[in-house]
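Reply to thread "Modeling small-molecule complexes from scratch"

Following up on the discussion above, here's a worked example others can learn from. I took a protein sequence and the SMILES for oxaloacetate ion and predicted the complex. Inputs first:
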Amino acid sequence: MFLGSRIQTRAFSASARNLSKVAVLGAAGGIGQPLSLLLKLNPRVTELALYDIRGAPGVAADVSHVNTKSTVKGYAPGAANLAAALKGAEVVLIPAGVPRKPGMSRDDLFNTNASIVRDLAKACAESAPNANILVISNPVNSTVPICAEVFKAKGVYNPRRLFGVTTLDVVRASRFVSEIKNTDPANENITVVGGHSGVTIVPLFSQSNHPELSSNAELVHRVQFGGDEVVHAKEGAGSATLSMAMAGARMAESLLRAAQGEKGVIEPTFVDSPLYKDQGIDFFSSNVELGPNGVERVLPVGKVDANEEKLLEACFADLKKNIEKGKKFVAENPGN
Ligand SMILES: NC(=O)C1=CN([C@@H]2O[C@H](COP(=O)(O)OP(=O)(O)OC[C@H]3O[C@@H](n4cnc5c(N)ncnc54)[C@H](O)[C@@H]3O)[C@@H](O)[C@H]2O)C=CC1
Ligand SMILES: O=C([O-])CC(=O)C(=O)O
């Protein structure tokens, strides 16, 4: 018993010395700026590297005055600077790319964002092949497969280290439920599976504290199309940035906690998943246990009710197309 606790103490002090460099690509954007601020406030982050095609040094100068211990460096555009920003990073968050305007779907962003993500993924594969890559840029259902294909082409693909950030869907789901039930959202753990766009987002209320909510079509729709509410309210000035920054910072924090030895860290995320591979769906978002090597275990979807079965069917059809589109893009446009 005594020996055990001594070992634990030693293990903890060793992990407390961990150096955790985190890089943000797209750091001067609507998400990138508040995300960088939240990462600066995270004591687990020891070094923050901010890269963008415009404005990153300014954001870095600003954030660097926040009086926490981590160092912050902004990088001007260019391949050598991008490589330097990535070198030694343990976590790389990618919110680079254009956001939606009213009337657009996430898939409408594909033509612009696919090549941005492909090129950034190449830089990651070359300069930070062992980092955890957290893809925020939309359409996530396609940009994650794009990253996977790029990493495969470079011979450094590790499916345990590639994550599509879908945290915002569970953040929204718990908040929307708490509004209906007049509860604390911290106590509303809603599982959301599938992808990150419209009907591919599948909330599983039957597994929550309020199983009857699975027949609340209005709530299900709100979770699936929550992003549209923000796009509409911003009237052409972009999509969710602040709630997304919070969600991205939470996902990064969870990965760092797991990397620093904490057990049982579980987050929903869009990963290379065994769950529906037999149906030709290579990537799927579900709860995932994180560990020092990234994905430790993909948790099963669990029991769903008849309403949710129908939602899953609709999800599969769209998700498969989105994934294929990402793969095809890299095959046909390998870039330089
Ligand atoms: N996964 C999710 O849950 C969510 C994803 N998003 C997505 O995140 C992305 C970014 O959104 P915002 O920050 O609002 O957009 P934004 O336009 O405000 O910022 C994007 C930033 O990316 C930079 N950028 C563009 N190309 C780049 C490149 N090649 N290298 C480095 N930086 C580059 C731009 O200069 C800009 O500063 C969008 O695609 C949006 O749809 C938004 C909300 C939620
Ligand atoms: O709706 C968008 O375009 C941005 C996004 O992914 C979200 O807010 O969930």
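What I'd highlight from this example: Residues 25-26, 28-32, 51-54, 95-100, 109, 113, 116, 120, 136-138, 140, 165, 168, 196, 238-241, 244 surround NAI (ligand 1) (CB under 6 Å). The chain has two domains: 20-165, 167-323. Questions welcome below.
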